[in-house]
Design goal:
It is built from 8 helices and 29 strands. By secondary structure, the protein is mainly beta. It has 3 domains: 131 residues, Beta Barrel (Cathepsin D, subunit A, domain 1); 108 residues, Beta Barrel (Cathepsin D, subunit A, domain 1); 80 residues, Pdz3 Domain (Roll). Strand 2 and strand 3 form a beta hairpin.
Amino acid sequence: MRVIFFLFFSLFASSVFGQEMYWPTPAKFITRFPFKQLNGGVMLVTAKFNNLPDSFHFILDTGSGGISLDSTTAEQYKIPHVPSGRYIYGIAGVHKVDYSRNNELSFPGLKVDSLNFYINNYDILGSVYGIKIDGIIGYSFLKRYIVKINFDSLTISVFNPGFLRYPEHAILLHPHFRGLPIVPLIVKDSKTITSNFYFDTGAGLCFLVSDQFNKDSALLLKKRRPMPIEVQGFGGKRQMRLTLIKELRIGPYKFRKVPIYILKDNYNILAYPSQGGLIGDDLLRRFNIILNYPQREINLTPNSHYEDLFDYSYTGMTMYFDNGKIFADDIIKRSPADRSGIKDGDIIMAIDNNFSNNIETYKDLLQKSGSRVSVLVMRENKPYMLSLRIGRIR
């Protein structure tokens, strides 16, 4: 509608006043490259840093207000950096960070220069995903281009800013920006509430709200019994609560029985009451996304994953990868993992006879709520075969 109106106005002005028509410069395609999808829909891209020979792994994160590099990577490759005097906020803390100025990233078919990286430790992300995470790509990159994310083909296409015709049968969002994109959502459980939420492709979950937002809004039905869960993210570990809500709506698109995390937000990283929380990539991956930061627009088109089932499983434990082994950790008392006999520090050798030693595969095998799986663990150099009945959030 906006394009039709613009052309109509231009033609009218030309015929009456003799003015020239202005045609917007088309967005120019630059390149396309693949990404790997991690647990929860999180996107991992590969790029070269400066003139170094090795490729680095970065998470593409609309929830990052800049661009950053892992401190151990910076140390290994002797990348110079200086104190920044600034802090980065995460779910489990606040950290002072260094700064590395005027660097270059190279993707297939695209070089991006004049990038200033914050230096931060991302070891915990490597332990969560079982792969070295060298950094996070956020606003500093995204603000320069139009970026198309296709979760069907697992590819990212990059365009120079300009006029771009969006797909039909899609929704165009006009987010607010406070360093990060913020979109309105309608959520429904005990009542229907409209509020603003961060649009966060770096969060491997569906939906998260602050505990204060939940209390003030009285969102959850009284019958809900949120389950305690330990999560790992920037800044360390935090215990949250996990349950469901009846419905979440983004534009005309409705999702029912959506898993929701509730965070006691001690550092107010969610900026309540301005925002209630965030929508993450385990829901956003159900769309092909066009991030048009130069025009402050986000386009969503339902893709082949739109009707994928949500993960309602609950084990009450986390797993982390360290030095070639996968460990069980943070066992919640009276949880399914606790009742099965799994203990903190157990080495997970196999799940249902899968000996892949791949943490992403093991997480997938534990997403079968209501089923029983066999878990082979090594404890004090002795093997134990345990039976775990996977719970279900409600």
